[in-house]
UniProtKB/TrEMBL annotation, chain A:
Residues 835-844 have a biased composition (Low complexity). Belongs to the adaptor complexes large subunit family. Part of the AP-3 complex, an adaptor-related complex which seems to be clathrin-associated. The complex is associated with the Golgi region as well as more peripheral structures. It facilitates the budding of vesicles from the Golgi membrane and may be directly involved in trafficking to the vacuole. It also function in maintaining the identity of lytic vacuoles and in regulating the transition between storage and lytic vacuoles. Its main location: membrane. Residues 29-514 form the Clathrin/coatomer adaptor adaptin-like N-terminal domain. Keywords: Golgi apparatus, Membrane, Protein transport, Repeat, Transport. Residues 853-866, 893-908 have a biased composition (Basic and acidic residues). It holds the Pfam family Adaptin_N. It comes from the Eukaryota. This is AP-3 complex subunit delta. Coiled coil: none annotated. It comes from Hibiscus sabdariffa. Gene3D superfamilies: Leucine-rich Repeat Variant (1.25.10.10). Residues 695-726, 829-940 are annotated as: Disordered.
Automatic annotation (TrEMBL), chain B:
It is found in: Cytoplasmic vesicle membrane; Golgi apparatus. This is AP complex subunit sigma. CDD domains: AP3_sigma. It comes from Hibiscus sabdariffa (roselle). PANTHER family: ADAPTOR COMPLEXES SMALL SUBUNIT FAMILY.
Length: 940, 166
């Protein structure tokens, strides 16, 4: 053995050799590393521990800094760990903490090594082992090594004790039951006078309190003492962290700590502690006006400091204050706005957020003006950051803060012209959205759109294409507000539109179609003012099968109204004459002719539509241009009717549609959604009590089958009225309530039964939607009456339930941790010790009891007793309750599911759970009232 | 809690990486690259913070310091104070400086184990346990002594490193 091993060791490269070698390899680094790895794989199998450990060290190095996997060496690391030599152990522990994780197979084998080293007399060996434990501990390790950690918690070596304290964090997290063993000792360490120990303990508590602050309220007196007495900044910071979590839970505690914190604020010289005080005040003590004032004063010092770090943190603190005390920001407005041009991107963004926090409906236009100016000056990234935040702030809650939409629309237009602007899509959405939602802004919108469309330079900027598409759409849709439709038409057909992507080009063509129809229609109305009545007279002759008298009548009346409006407007601007129409038609043919052969289907199709329309109308227009309103001959009427129909089709107003509208449409009778999911029924049948489910499935099937046959007929019927206007009108009539009210004029009737509850849920979530609000609000109380109404069963919901179960699982551990902490803190020594811990904890609890009596002063003790008497019964219930809840949790999900899916309530089992739940509710208030008074009594 | 400590040079080469939760090496590399990409784009004399949430996920903050050719980066969550961590970087660098007498990048490169030892004395499982540079030095020296002693026990023929060091 010694022979080859000696040779091996003799010629083995050390880590230093590897590092040197790597530094010399300028190009072939990878090759060098893979060669080294090959060596390592050989060396690591050596029986000589020195060779092995050197190989392991080299491997760790390559894994740590060159990111090579080292999981293959897991077992070898354990072998090295068993070496008696410290240097080997150190290498092994380093390797283990780099590479081991919960699913490392050899993890099971490490327990004894760790235990041995934890009991070692060499404090550095112990510390290596603790360090490793803090990194790799899983449930088993934490459970098995709890006794050792417990012993170390009172070690007389500072070096070990503070590390033992720190490792507790991981042990608690992985194995909550260890709380029962270790917690008292951990708390005892809070009274330690050594700042290092104290720092470690407070650090651990600040971590614990982050996750579940309420459980640590009883320790408030100890923390308070530390807060007042501590001279160490690090400890003070951690205690402040704890209080910022505890104070919001207990107003009396907040009242108590606000003074000491203010003292610290005034007196400390350390910036870190000062900042922590500020943060604590502004996050957790914001209702104490004087404290906030003091803190804001200190924030101002930060803001004007040279150090960019302080400035940045100051701005951050200000942003937290802004949520409740906007005045703090306004007071520092100048600094904040000045910071917008700071060199540091962090500071710029932070101040931008603050500026946006100041925005209200009164100052939005000024602030936006300032910001747009900044955007013009700044680099592309920040420019878009600014634009993005303006857009999102202004559109918040459906443009809540915008009063003057004309101004906002022109701002949008202006923003899209900023050179670096890349927010095209957002601007596009908002332009269209505003167009749909706000009636009054449409003239201005068309004006802005025209300005954008008419500028040939903009077509070259690909970031603006989506804005242009919105502009094109708006100008087509709301062409009646246009001053000069002819000009618009030229803009839409200008040669540079060839630069647009075809999807947007299609929008342009469609808009051109709309504009053309509008021009023709206006021209006809202007040309022959008798047209409406004439066409009415002629109607009987020309009526097609598709149009009924009434509908046509209705439409023409609407037209009359439209026309007068249009008349008033177009009169002011360039009049549309027959000649201009002819020119227009020629222009369309000229511009779009080449596109007939476009490769893009969408473009091609729309061009064909448009040119077809031109073909249809052109002869007649030419005709009438010559004849000058000669007579109302049959053919002319035909064409004008077509124009009229097209115009009517386009002049129907589109309303915005609620996101959940689809969900609210009841399932059409003929639609069988569950056909392919039929076999799911069997799966579900296995999972659920079969009675009700199968029943509901069956019933829904029957319904579907019965009705699906009658459906095609209905469809055919409706298809006969094959005409766009009437279809649209009909659609609106039938589904009118799924459109949002376009103005606020029409009130939506609310008593429509929603298709199923989940969408209803979604509706409530959508509540931000101002326009939906009316609907949503009225739906909330309607929930119960829905029970009675029949609704389709949706299979998917079962999936949702399962997800719920899965999601809840991880929580249980946390619950058990805080549960354990509470048990210990509220003095539940009568816990029936469970698991393997029984012996130990029995011993400990008796020990603890003794100690407690010594340590606590009589005052506190008596209080505790009082509480104990009052609460013991409650507490017991509480705990058992907790347990019950834990193992009942999957069933609880059922209750939730019942709530959610609004299933039929006939199932007995579920009722049963519901009763459970209500009982639980009844107990809860008791629980709270029992707990809260416990804490402050220590304090006051 | 401190989530990670990294040291990298201005070329983006990792000089030290320590993650206090297990991460696969690929993920480590990805994170370090992500951090470096942001670091190298930042000017001098700006604040020492980076928005880390885009790289490390929610509730993470990042503080870095730039010394000569090295970036020292600490990643942590909301239970640490930013300025305190900044001081901690200072302590770390000071300790390195005391340990190596005018520390430079090469010292960090060639003393892989020692740098890790220093860091381990300072930060334990993500918790800061030692903030005094002289205390750290004391512990590190003792550990080094112990290592040397344990090697010299079997100095005679078994270990080649023993031979070489003569």
């Amino acid at each position: 053995m010694s022979g080859p091993s000696l040779m091996d060791s003799l010629f083995q490269r050390s880590l230093e050799d590897i590092i040197k070698g790597l530094r010399q390899q300028l190009i072939g680094e990878q090759a060098f590393i893979s060669k080294a790895l090959e060596e390592i794989r050989k060396e690591i199998k050596s029986t000589d521990l020195s060779t092995k450990s050197t190989a392991l060290l080299k491997l760790s190095y390559l894994s740590n800094l060159h990111f090579h996997d080292m999981s293959f060496a897991a077992f070898h690391a354990l072998e090295v760990l068993s070496s008696p030599r410290f240097s080997h152990k150190k290498i092994a522990y380093h390797a283990i903490s780099l590479s081991f994780h919960d699913s490392t197979p050899v993890l099971l084998l490490i327990t004894n090594h760790l235990r041995k080293d934890l009991n070692s007399t060499n404090e550095f060996e112990v510390s290596l082992s603790l360090q490793c434990l803090s990194r790799i501990a899983n449930v088993d390790l934490a459970r098995d090594l709890t006794p050792e950690v417990f012993a170390l918690l009172s070690s007389n070596k500072l070096y070990l004790r503070k590390r033992a304290v720190a490792v507790v964090l991981r042990v608690f997290e992985k194995y909550p039951d260890s709380v029962r063993v270790c917690f008292k000792r951990l708390v005892e360490n809070l009274e330690n006078s050594d700042p290092q120990i104290l720092s470690a303990v407070v650090g651990v508590f600040s971590e614990l309190a982050c996750k579940d602050p309420r459980s640590y309220l009883p320790l408030a007196p100890e923390f308070y003492k530390i807060l007042v007495d501590s001279k160490n900044n690090w400890i003070s910071i951690k205690v402040l962290k704890i209080f910022s979590k505890l104070a919001p839970l207990e107003p009396r505690l907040a009242k108590r700590v606000v003074e000491p914190i203010c003292d610290l604020l005034r007196n400390t010289a350390a910036k870190s502690l000062l900042f922590e005080c500020i943060r604590t005040v502004v996050t957790s003590l914001s209702e104490y006006e004087s404290a906030v004032r003091l803190a804001v004063g200190k924030v101002r010092e930060f803001l004007v400091d040279e150090d960019p770090n302080l400035k940045y943190l100051g701005l951050q603190a200000l942003r937290i204050v802004a949520e409740k005390h906007l005045w703090a920001v306004s007071e520092n407005k100048e600094v904040v706005i000045k910071s917008l041009s700071d060199a540091d991107p962090n500071i710029k963004i932070e101040s931008l957020r603050l500026v946006m926090a100041m925005v209200s409906e009164h100052n939005v236009s000024e602030i936006s003006r300032v910001l747009v100016n900044y955007a013009l000056k700044s680099d592309p990234v920040f420019c878009n950051e600014i634009l993005g935040s303006i857009l999102s702030t202004c559109s918040r809650n459906l443009y809540e803060i915008i009063v003057d939409f004309d101004w906002y629309v022109s701002l949008l237009g202006e923003m899209s012209r900023i050179p670096h602007c890349q927010m095209g899509e957002e601007i596009e959405n908002q332009l269209i959205d505003i167009g749909l939602r706000v009636k009054d802004v449409r003239p201005e919108l068309v004006r802005v759109a025209r300005d954008l469309l008419i500028d040939p330079a903009l077509l070259g900027n690909s970031f603006l294409h989506s804005v242009l598409s919105a502009a094109a759409w708006a100008s087509g849709e709301y062409v009646e507000f246009s001053r000069n439709p002819l000009e618009l038409m030229e803009a839409l057909l200008q040669p540079r539109t060839s630069l647009l992507p075809s999807s947007i080009r299609a929008v342009y063509i469609q808009s051109a179609f709309k504009v053309l129809v509008f021009c023709l229609h206006t021209c006809f109305v202007q040309g022959g003012s008798i047209v409406p009545s004439a066409s009415l007279n002629n109607l009987p002759a020309g009526v097609s099968a598709s149009v009924s008298y009434e509908s046509f009548d209705e439409i023409s009346v609407e037209n009359g109204a439209d026309v007068t409006v249009v008349h008033g407007q177009t009169c002011a601007s360039a009049p549309i004459t027959k000649e201009s129409i002819v020119n227009l038609l020629n222009l369309v043919e000229l511009a779009l002719g080449p596109l007939l052969g476009s490769h893009d289907v969408e473009v091609q199709e729309r061009v064909r539509n448009l040119l077809g329309f031109v073909d249809l109308t052109k002869p007649e227009v030419l005709n009438s241009a010559v004849q000058e309103k000669d007579d109302s001959e049959g053919k002319g009427v035909e064409t004008s009717k077509v124009i009229k129909l097209m115009h009517d089709a386009f002049s129907k107003e589109l309303g915005p549609v609620s996101l959940s509208a689809q969900g609210k449409v009841s399932l059409p009778d003929g639609l069988v959604l569950k056909e392919n999911l039929g076999d799911l029924e069997m799966v579900c049948g296995d999972l659920e009590p079969p009675s009700s489910n199968t029943f509901s499935f069956g019933s829904s099937y029957e319904e579907k089958d019965g009705l699906s046959f009658s459906n095609p007929q209905i469809k055919e019927d409706s298809e006969q009225t094959n005409e766009s206007t009437s279809l649209l009108a009909e659609h609106r009539k039938r589904h009118g309530l799924y459109y949002l009210p376009s103005g606020k004029s029409e009130l939506v009737s609310n008593d429509y039964p929603p298709a199923n509850d989940p969408t209803l849920q979604g509706d409530i979530d959508d509540n931000a939607d101002n326009l939906v609000k009316i609907t949503a609000e009225s739906l909330v109380p309607k929930r119960k009456p829905n029970h009675g109404k029949p609704r389709p069963v949706v299979v998917k919901l079962d999936e949702v339930d399962e997800k719920h179960v899965a999601m809840k699982k991880p929580e249980s551990r946390d619950d058990s941790l805080s549960g354990a902490v509470r048990d210990v803190l509220f003095g539940c020594e009568d816990v029936p010790p469970t698991l393997s811990q029984s012996n130990l904890s029995n011993k400990l609890s008796s020990k603890r009891k003794g100690k407690e009596k010594q340590h606590t002063d009589p005052h506190v003790e008596s209080k505790e007793n009082v509480i104990d008497d009052g609460n013991s019964s409650l507490r017991r219930k509480d705990r058992s309750h907790g347990k019950e809840r834990r193992h009942r949790s999957p069933r609880k999900k059922n209750v939730e599911e019942r709530k959610e899916t609004n299933q039929k309530e006939k199932e007995k089992s579920r009722r049963h759970h519901a009763r459970h739940k209500s009982r639980q509710r009844a107990e809860e208030p008791l629980k709270v009232s029992a707990q809260t008074p416990v804490i402050p009594d220590f304090l006051l | 809690m401190i989530k990670a400590v990294m040291v990298m040079n201005t070329q983006g080469k990792t000089r030290l990486a320590k993650f206090y939760e297990y991460l696969p090496v690929e993920k480590q590399q990805e994170l370090i690259r992500g951090v470096f990409a942001v670091l190298c784009s930042r000017a001098e004399n700006v604040s020492n913070f980076i928005d880390a949430e885009s790289i490390f996920g929610l509730d993470s903050r990042l503080v870095y310091k730039h010394f000569a050719t090295l970036y020292f980066v600490f990643v942590f969550d909301s239970s640490e104070n930013e300025l305190a961590v900044l001081d901690l970087i200072q302590v770390f660098v000071e300790t390195l400086d005391r340990c190596f007498k005018n520390v430079c990048e090469l010292d960090v490169v060639f003393n892989y184990s020692k740098v890790h030892t220093i860091l381990d004395v300072m930060i334990f499982g993500g918790q800061v346990v030692e903030t005094s540079s002289s205390e750290i030095m004391k512990a590190v020296e003792e550990i080094s002594k112990l290592e040397a002693a344990s090697n010299s026990i079997a100095l005679i023929p078994k270990s080649a490193s023993g031979w070489r060091s003569r």
